[in-house]
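Now for one record.
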Amino acid sequence: MQWSGGDSAVPDSVCSFPCELGERKKMVKGVPCCWHCELCDGYQYQLDELNCDMCPFDMRPMPNRTGCRSTPIIKLEWSSPWAIIPVFLAVLGILATSGCIITFIRFNNSPIVRASGRELSYVLLTGIFLIYLITFLMIAEPSAPVCAFRRLLLGLGMCITYSAMLTKTNRIYRIFEQGKKAVTPPPFISPASQLIITFILIGVQLLGVFIWFGVVPPHTIIDYEEQHPPNPEFARGVLKCDMSDLALVLCLSYSIVLMVTCTVYAIKSRGVPETFNEAKPIGFTMYTTCIVWLAFVPIFFGTAQSTEKV
Protein backbone atom coordinates (compact mmCIF):
# COMPACT_ATOMS: atom_id res chain seq x y z
CA MET A 1 0.00 0.00 0.00
CA GLN A 2 1.36 3.36 -1.01
CA TRP A 3 0.55 6.44 1.10
CA SER A 4 0.46 10.05 0.07
CA GLY A 5 3.94 11.46 -0.40
CA GLY A 6 5.42 8.14 -1.44
CA ASP A 7 5.85 6.89 2.16
CA SER A 8 5.20 3.17 2.59
CA ALA A 9 5.09 3.30 6.43
CA VAL A 10 1.73 3.24 8.16
CA PRO A 11 1.08 6.68 9.70
CA ASP A 12 0.45 6.90 13.45
CA SER A 13 -3.19 7.41 14.28
CA VAL A 14 -2.55 9.74 17.24
CA CYS A 15 -2.65 13.53 17.44
CA SER A 16 0.13 13.83 20.05
CA PHE A 17 3.27 12.00 21.10
CA PRO A 18 4.61 11.57 24.65
CA CYS A 19 6.67 14.53 25.86
CA GLU A 20 10.37 14.29 26.66
CA LEU A 21 11.84 14.82 30.12
CA GLY A 22 11.74 18.48 31.07
CA GLU A 23 8.69 19.17 28.88
CA ARG A 24 5.11 19.74 29.94
CA LYS A 25 1.91 18.99 28.08
CA LYS A 26 0.13 22.07 26.80
CA MET A 27 -3.39 20.93 25.96
CA VAL A 28 -4.89 21.93 22.60
CA LYS A 29 -8.00 24.00 23.11
CA GLY A 30 -11.13 22.15 21.98
CA VAL A 31 -9.29 18.85 21.52
CA PRO A 32 -9.16 17.20 24.99
CA CYS A 33 -6.86 14.33 24.05
CA CYS A 34 -4.28 16.35 22.12
CA TRP A 35 -1.42 18.48 23.38
CA HIS A 36 1.77 20.24 22.40
CA CYS A 37 5.03 19.59 24.25
CA GLU A 38 6.51 22.76 25.76
CA LEU A 39 10.01 22.89 27.27
CA CYS A 40 10.39 24.20 30.82
CA ASP A 41 12.83 27.05 30.21
CA GLY A 42 14.87 29.47 32.31
CA TYR A 43 14.98 28.45 35.95
CA GLN A 44 11.91 26.21 35.66
CA TYR A 45 11.74 22.46 36.17
CA GLN A 46 9.06 19.90 35.30
CA LEU A 47 6.71 19.66 38.28
CA ASP A 48 4.35 17.13 36.68
CA GLU A 49 3.00 16.26 33.23
CA LEU A 50 1.09 19.51 32.87
CA ASN A 51 3.09 22.06 34.87
CA CYS A 52 6.49 23.66 35.18
CA ASP A 53 7.56 25.44 38.36
CA MET A 54 10.40 27.80 39.34
CA CYS A 55 13.34 26.48 41.33
CA PRO A 56 14.00 28.10 44.73
CA PHE A 57 16.18 31.22 44.57
CA ASP A 58 19.24 29.32 45.82
CA MET A 59 18.88 26.47 43.32
CA ARG A 60 18.92 25.89 39.56
CA PRO A 61 17.26 23.19 37.38
CA MET A 62 18.97 19.92 36.63
CA PRO A 63 20.17 19.42 33.02
CA ASN A 64 17.08 17.31 32.19
CA ARG A 65 14.85 19.74 34.14
CA THR A 66 13.22 17.01 36.21
CA GLY A 67 14.20 18.69 39.46
CA CYS A 68 16.42 21.33 41.06
CA ARG A 69 20.01 21.24 42.29
CA SER A 70 22.07 23.54 44.49
CA THR A 71 23.70 26.55 42.86
CA PRO A 72 27.54 26.45 43.16
CA ILE A 73 29.04 28.89 45.66
CA ILE A 74 32.06 30.94 44.60
CA LYS A 75 34.36 33.46 46.28
CA LEU A 76 37.41 35.44 45.30
CA GLU A 77 40.31 33.00 45.00
CA TRP A 78 43.93 33.84 45.75
CA SER A 79 44.86 32.45 42.31
CA SER A 80 42.55 34.88 40.50
CA PRO A 81 44.12 37.77 38.54
CA TRP A 82 41.80 40.06 40.52
CA ALA A 83 43.71 38.90 43.64
CA ILE A 84 47.26 38.34 42.36
CA ILE A 85 47.82 41.90 41.10
CA PRO A 86 46.54 43.69 44.25
CA VAL A 87 48.50 41.29 46.50
CA PHE A 88 51.69 41.93 44.51
CA LEU A 89 51.25 45.69 44.78
CA ALA A 90 50.35 45.43 48.47
CA VAL A 91 53.50 43.41 49.20
CA LEU A 92 55.61 46.05 47.46
CA GLY A 93 53.86 48.76 49.46
CA ILE A 94 54.35 46.92 52.76
CA LEU A 95 58.05 46.41 52.02
CA ALA A 96 58.51 50.08 51.13
CA THR A 97 56.60 51.24 54.21
CA SER A 98 58.50 48.84 56.45
CA GLY A 99 61.76 50.18 55.01
CA CYS A 100 60.71 53.74 55.87
CA ILE A 101 59.74 52.73 59.41
CA ILE A 102 63.05 50.93 59.96
CA THR A 103 64.95 53.97 58.64
CA PHE A 104 63.03 56.29 60.95
CA ILE A 105 63.72 54.04 63.95
CA ARG A 106 67.41 53.76 63.08
CA PHE A 107 67.84 57.53 62.76
CA ASN A 108 65.19 58.39 65.33
CA ASN A 109 67.21 61.17 66.99
CA SER A 110 68.75 62.65 63.85
CA PRO A 111 67.93 66.31 63.07
CA ILE A 112 66.12 65.41 59.82
CA VAL A 113 63.79 62.90 61.47
CA ARG A 114 63.09 65.21 64.40
CA ALA A 115 62.43 68.14 62.06
CA SER A 116 59.92 66.08 60.06
CA GLY A 117 57.73 65.66 63.13
CA ARG A 118 58.66 62.10 63.93
CA GLU A 119 55.63 61.47 66.14
CA LEU A 120 53.12 62.24 63.39
CA SER A 121 55.38 60.57 60.84
CA TYR A 122 55.11 57.28 62.75
CA VAL A 123 51.33 57.68 62.87
CA LEU A 124 51.27 58.42 59.14
CA LEU A 125 53.39 55.36 58.32
CA THR A 126 51.13 53.20 60.49
CA GLY A 127 48.10 54.34 58.50
CA ILE A 128 49.84 53.63 55.19
CA PHE A 129 50.84 50.17 56.45
CA LEU A 130 47.21 49.38 57.36
CA ILE A 131 46.01 50.53 53.93
CA TYR A 132 48.23 47.93 52.27
CA LEU A 133 47.35 45.29 54.89
CA ILE A 134 43.59 45.55 54.21
CA THR A 135 44.24 44.06 50.75
CA PHE A 136 44.73 40.62 52.28
CA LEU A 137 41.53 40.88 54.33
CA MET A 138 39.52 41.87 51.25
CA ILE A 139 40.72 38.73 49.44
CA ALA A 140 40.48 36.33 52.40
CA GLU A 141 37.50 33.95 52.55
CA PRO A 142 34.57 35.82 54.11
CA SER A 143 33.67 34.87 57.68
CA ALA A 144 32.31 36.80 60.66
CA PRO A 145 35.80 37.70 62.04
CA VAL A 146 37.11 38.60 58.57
CA CYS A 147 34.06 40.79 57.92
CA ALA A 148 34.56 42.50 61.29
CA PHE A 149 38.20 43.32 60.54
CA ARG A 150 37.25 44.50 57.05
CA ARG A 151 34.85 47.03 58.54
CA LEU A 152 37.36 48.10 61.16
CA LEU A 153 40.48 48.45 59.02
CA LEU A 154 38.98 49.52 55.69
CA GLY A 155 38.39 53.10 56.78
CA LEU A 156 40.84 53.13 59.70
CA GLY A 157 44.01 53.07 57.61
CA MET A 158 42.95 56.05 55.51
CA CYS A 159 41.54 57.81 58.58
CA ILE A 160 44.90 57.51 60.39
CA THR A 161 46.77 58.73 57.30
CA TYR A 162 44.55 61.73 56.61
CA SER A 163 44.26 62.63 60.31
CA ALA A 164 48.04 62.87 60.58
CA MET A 165 48.31 64.90 57.37
CA LEU A 166 45.45 67.18 58.39
CA THR A 167 47.06 67.83 61.76
CA LYS A 168 50.37 68.64 60.03
CA THR A 169 48.86 71.06 57.51
CA ASN A 170 46.66 72.69 60.16
CA ARG A 171 49.73 73.26 62.35
CA ILE A 172 51.69 74.81 59.47
CA TYR A 173 48.77 77.07 58.56
CA ARG A 174 48.21 78.25 62.16
CA ILE A 175 51.92 78.92 62.75
CA PHE A 176 52.26 81.22 59.75
CA GLU A 177 48.88 82.88 60.24
CA GLN A 178 49.80 83.58 63.86
CA GLY A 179 53.19 84.93 62.74
CA LYS A 180 51.40 87.63 60.74
CA LYS A 181 49.63 88.88 63.85
CA ALA A 182 51.94 88.31 66.83
CA VAL A 183 55.25 86.84 67.87
CA THR A 184 53.70 84.39 70.31
CA PRO A 185 53.22 80.87 68.91
CA PRO A 186 49.68 79.49 68.49
CA PRO A 187 48.39 76.92 70.99
CA PHE A 188 48.48 73.15 70.50
CA ILE A 189 51.55 72.89 68.26
CA SER A 190 53.68 70.70 70.54
CA PRO A 191 54.22 67.04 69.55
CA ALA A 192 52.01 65.85 72.42
CA SER A 193 49.20 68.21 71.38
CA GLN A 194 49.50 67.09 67.78
CA LEU A 195 49.18 63.44 68.79
CA ILE A 196 46.13 64.15 70.96
CA ILE A 197 44.41 65.99 68.08
CA THR A 198 45.24 63.13 65.70
CA PHE A 199 43.93 60.45 68.06
CA ILE A 200 40.72 62.41 68.63
CA LEU A 201 40.14 62.50 64.87
CA ILE A 202 40.86 58.77 64.65
CA GLY A 203 38.52 58.12 67.59
CA VAL A 204 35.58 59.50 65.62
CA GLN A 205 36.11 56.81 62.96
CA LEU A 206 36.42 54.07 65.59
CA LEU A 207 33.26 55.24 67.33
CA GLY A 208 31.33 55.10 64.07
CA VAL A 209 32.57 51.58 63.31
CA PHE A 210 31.67 50.26 66.77
CA ILE A 211 28.18 51.76 66.47
CA TRP A 212 27.91 49.98 63.12
CA PHE A 213 28.92 46.73 64.83
CA GLY A 214 26.11 47.20 67.34
CA VAL A 215 23.44 48.06 64.78
CA VAL A 216 24.44 45.46 62.15
CA PRO A 217 26.72 42.70 63.51
CA PRO A 218 29.23 41.50 60.89
CA HIS A 219 28.20 38.34 59.08
CA THR A 220 28.40 36.68 55.68
CA ILE A 221 25.73 36.20 53.03
CA ILE A 222 25.43 34.28 49.77
CA ASP A 223 24.28 36.58 46.98
CA TYR A 224 22.40 34.60 44.32
CA GLU A 225 21.19 37.66 42.41
CA GLU A 226 24.56 39.04 41.35
CA GLN A 227 25.42 36.17 38.97
CA HIS A 228 21.95 35.10 37.83
CA PRO A 229 22.19 34.98 33.99
CA PRO A 230 19.40 33.73 31.69
CA ASN A 231 21.27 30.43 31.26
CA PRO A 232 21.06 28.64 34.65
CA GLU A 233 24.19 26.61 33.89
CA PHE A 234 26.22 29.76 34.55
CA ALA A 235 24.38 30.73 37.75
CA ARG A 236 26.56 31.15 40.83
CA GLY A 237 26.11 32.20 44.43
CA VAL A 238 28.71 34.70 45.66
CA LEU A 239 29.92 34.32 49.26
CA LYS A 240 30.65 37.76 50.65
CA CYS A 241 30.38 39.97 53.70
CA ASP A 242 27.02 41.61 54.25
CA MET A 243 28.24 45.10 53.42
CA SER A 244 26.39 47.04 50.74
CA ASP A 245 28.07 49.46 48.36
CA LEU A 246 26.40 52.37 50.17
CA ALA A 247 27.64 51.13 53.57
CA LEU A 248 31.14 50.81 52.15
CA VAL A 249 31.15 54.39 50.87
CA LEU A 250 29.71 55.65 54.17
CA CYS A 251 32.52 53.82 55.96
CA LEU A 252 34.99 55.80 53.86
CA SER A 253 33.06 59.09 53.98
CA TYR A 254 34.77 60.34 57.16
CA SER A 255 38.16 59.77 55.54
CA ILE A 256 36.94 61.74 52.52
CA VAL A 257 35.95 64.63 54.80
CA LEU A 258 39.41 64.57 56.39
CA MET A 259 41.01 64.45 52.94
CA VAL A 260 39.02 67.42 51.64
CA THR A 261 39.72 69.44 54.80
CA CYS A 262 43.42 68.63 54.52
CA THR A 263 43.36 69.75 50.88
CA VAL A 264 41.78 73.07 51.89
CA TYR A 265 44.53 73.70 54.45
CA ALA A 266 47.16 72.66 51.90
CA ILE A 267 45.79 75.29 49.49
CA LYS A 268 45.80 77.92 52.23
CA SER A 269 49.38 77.02 53.15
CA ARG A 270 50.77 77.11 49.63
CA GLY A 271 52.31 80.56 50.22
CA VAL A 272 54.58 79.53 53.09
CA PRO A 273 58.33 80.17 52.69
CA GLU A 274 60.30 77.75 50.53
CA THR A 275 62.42 76.71 53.52
CA PHE A 276 59.31 75.30 55.19
CA ASN A 277 58.98 72.59 52.58
CA GLU A 278 56.35 70.25 54.11
CA ALA A 279 53.25 72.12 52.97
CA LYS A 280 53.79 71.91 49.22
CA PRO A 281 54.49 68.14 49.01
CA ILE A 282 51.45 67.53 51.21
CA GLY A 283 49.41 69.79 48.95
CA PHE A 284 50.55 67.95 45.81
CA THR A 285 49.71 64.63 47.48
CA MET A 286 46.22 65.80 48.40
CA TYR A 287 45.50 67.17 44.90
CA THR A 288 46.36 63.84 43.30
CA THR A 289 44.44 61.95 45.99
CA CYS A 290 41.31 63.96 45.25
CA ILE A 291 41.61 63.09 41.56
CA VAL A 292 41.99 59.39 42.42
CA TRP A 293 38.88 59.51 44.62
CA LEU A 294 36.87 61.28 41.93
CA ALA A 295 37.75 58.43 39.56
CA PHE A 296 37.17 55.72 42.18
CA VAL A 297 33.51 56.45 42.99
CA PRO A 298 32.00 56.13 39.47
CA ILE A 299 34.23 53.14 38.63
CA PHE A 300 33.23 51.36 41.84
CA PHE A 301 29.49 51.84 41.38
CA GLY A 302 29.73 51.06 37.67
CA THR A 303 31.38 47.68 38.27
CA ALA A 304 28.98 44.76 38.32
CA GLN A 305 30.98 41.94 39.89
CA SER A 306 31.94 41.83 43.57
CA THR A 307 35.32 40.30 42.77
CA GLU A 308 36.15 43.25 40.54
CA LYS A 309 35.01 45.74 43.16
CA VAL A 310 37.18 44.19 45.82
Remarks:
- Residues 23-70 form a domain with the Tumor Necrosis Factor Receptor, subunit A; domain 2 fold (CATH 2.10.50.30).
- The mean pLDDT is 82.
- The chain has two domains: 23-70, 75-309.
- The longest helix spans residues 144-181.
